[in-house]
C-alpha cells in the first residue's frame, strides 16, 4: 500500500520535468532569435536589382520614346487633308509634314485656304495624297513592332504600305519615310506626320514632269 504512492510522487516530481522544460525553452528561444535575425536582415538589405533583361528593356523603352506633337504639327494642309475623312470611321493617315508639302508637292499653307474656297487643283492633289496615305483601320505607333518583319498595310487607293518602327529612334517608318510626329488622335482617326509623301510611281512622275517643265 505504501509503495504505490511513492512511485506516483516520483513520476510527478517537478525535479524530473525541469531538464525537459529547459530543453523546450532553449529550442523556442533559438527559433525566436533566428526569426528576429531574418527579419532584421530583410529590413536592412537593399531591394534586389532588376535582372539584366528587365534593365535593358527599361533603357530601351526610355531611349525609344516616339516623337509626338499636337494638332499644330499637321499644318494647314495636313489639317485640310485629314478633314476630308469621315469622322465616325477608324482610319490611320500618314500625313506629309508641312515641309514635305512644300518640297514635294509645291503646296504651302495658303493653298489650304484656296482649297476651302473651291480651288479644284489643290483639292484634287490633297484627295489623291489622302488616298495613298490613309489606311482603313486605327494603328498607333505602339502597334508597329520595333523588330521583325514590317507590317503590311493597304491604303484606300490600294497602295501597299510597309510599316515598321525604328528601334533606335522610335520613329514609325512607312515605305522608307520616317515619321516626325506620331499618334495625333482626331476622333476615330490616328494621324502620323511623316517627312515625305506616300504616292505611287505614276503620281510621282507627274510631279517630276511638272517640276522639270
From TrEMBL:
<keyword id="KW-0472">Membrane</keyword>
<comment type="similarity">
    <text>Belongs to the fasciclin-like AGP family.</text>
</comment>
<feature type="domain" description="FAS1">
    <location>
        <begin position="47"/>
        <end position="198"/>
    </location>
</feature>
<dbReference type="Pfam" id="PF02469">
    <property type="entry name" value="Fasciclin"/>
</dbReference>
<keyword id="KW-1133">Transmembrane helix</keyword>
<feature type="transmembrane region" description="Helical">
    <location>
        <begin position="21"/>
        <end position="42"/>
    </location>
</feature>
<protein>
    <recommendedName>
        <fullName>FAS1 domain-containing protein</fullName>
    </recommendedName>
</protein>
<feature type="region of interest" description="Disordered">
    <location>
        <begin position="47"/>
        <end position="68"/>
    </location>
</feature>
<dbReference type="InterPro" id="IPR000782">
    <property type="entry name" value="FAS1_domain"/>
</dbReference>
<dbReference type="InterPro" id="IPR036378">
    <property type="entry name" value="FAS1_dom_sf"/>
</dbReference>
<keyword id="KW-0812">Transmembrane</keyword>
